[in-house]
Amino acid sequence: MSTVADSAVETADASVLDGLVTDYLRVLANERGASAHTLRAYERELRSFAGYIGQQTGKQQTPAGIEHTHIRAYLGTLYERGLSKASAARALAAIRSWFKWLARVGQVDQNVARLVATPKLPKHLPRVPSIEQMNRVVDSVGEDAASWPARDKAIVELLYGCGMRNAELTGLNVEDVHWANEAILVRGKGQKQRYVPLGDMAAQALRAYLAERSALLAAAGPRGPKTPALFLNLYLRGLNKTGSQARLTTRSVGRIVKRIAVLRGLSAEVHPHTLRHAFGTHLLAEGADLRAIQELLGHERLSTTQRYTQLTTAQLEQVYDKTHPRAK
């Protein structure tokens, strides 16, 4: 039995919609500076939707013939396949963005995707390790929990000490570390750049790793030093491939963080973004200004940063409920 994604592949060559998806992805990449991760996600969602429409109404269907009922029915197929409301919401967001562009270039009169209600998602706050737990994790990265202890300790130090996103970390180059200014140049979403302070502990871990990095590249021969990537995979896989540069992947960073966290007694749900949440939450708990945290995290809107206020409030309520005599 073919899936929606399969049908999208089958109709890719002949579908009118698929060509417009390609055009939109080009706009995202060239004009809006979307990251590779964003492009992959949008392509996956839009190819799937275009395949579904082609299957239902024909390969030569134009955007003008798509009604909001088609989009709603497509979301229904996602639920039937067992996808969550969050997955359906992501798909709808991609379709809305595509239709907004289609309206701007005159392919449709209006964005019919706006007529489809966003699936209601359960509101939950991320579970954030305590300051003591994070200190225990960062201070105890050793051979029992890491394949390359010096590198993995530097990774954890930067994720928690600088509040970086996973993709921001793996995208770092050696030249982005500005030792004289004790700062790191970070390239965030939409190619936006910001400088984040490099703390003493993170700097110490980074220097130790860089020494081992240099030794590894020197042992690999004259081709080794050509890679600008800061964090490398242990066996320098892909060193000669264009665009790879032996750069560590976000998936590998996720595995590294999870292994270290679990071995140090934290939840298996811990991932690199958990450390970013911990960075913001702990700064706020220690009295940092919300707008300063916004700048450090690279949030475009203050409302995004305010989620950390909600998180801290929730933690305070838990403490109150457990300890105050009138709360029992």
Strand order of the largest sheet: 1-2-3
Order of secondary-structure elements: HHHHHHHHEEEHHHHHH
* Mean model confidence by pLDDT: 84
- Contiguous uncertain segments of 5+ residues: 1-14
> How many β-strands, per DSSP?
3
How many distinct helices? 14
- Roughly what percent helix? 55-70%
Please give the largest β-sheet. 3 strands, antiparallel
Structural class: mainly alpha
Alpha-carbon distance between the termini?
A: 56 Å
Strand content: under 5%
- Based on CA atoms alone, the radius of gyration comes out at 23 Å
Shape: globular
Oligomeric state = single chain
In short:
The chain has helices spanning 4-10, 16-30, 36-57, 68-80, 85-104, 131-139, 149-162, 166-170, 200-220, 250-263, 272-285, 290-297, 302-305, 307-323, and strands spanning 177-178, 183-187, 193-197.
Kindly describe this structure.
This protein has 328 residues and is mainly α. 56% of the residues lie in helices and 4% in strands. It has helices at 4-10, 16-30, 36-57, 68-80, 85-104, 131-139, 149-162, 166-170, 200-220, 250-263, 272-285, 290-297, 302-305, 307-323, and strands at residues 177-178, 183-187, 193-197. It has a 3-stranded antiparallel β-sheet. Strand 2 (183-187) and strand 3 form a beta hairpin. Helix 4 (68-80) packs antiparallel against helix 5 (85-104). It starts with a helix and ends in a 5-residue tail after the last helix. The model is unreliable at 1-14 (pLDDT under 50).
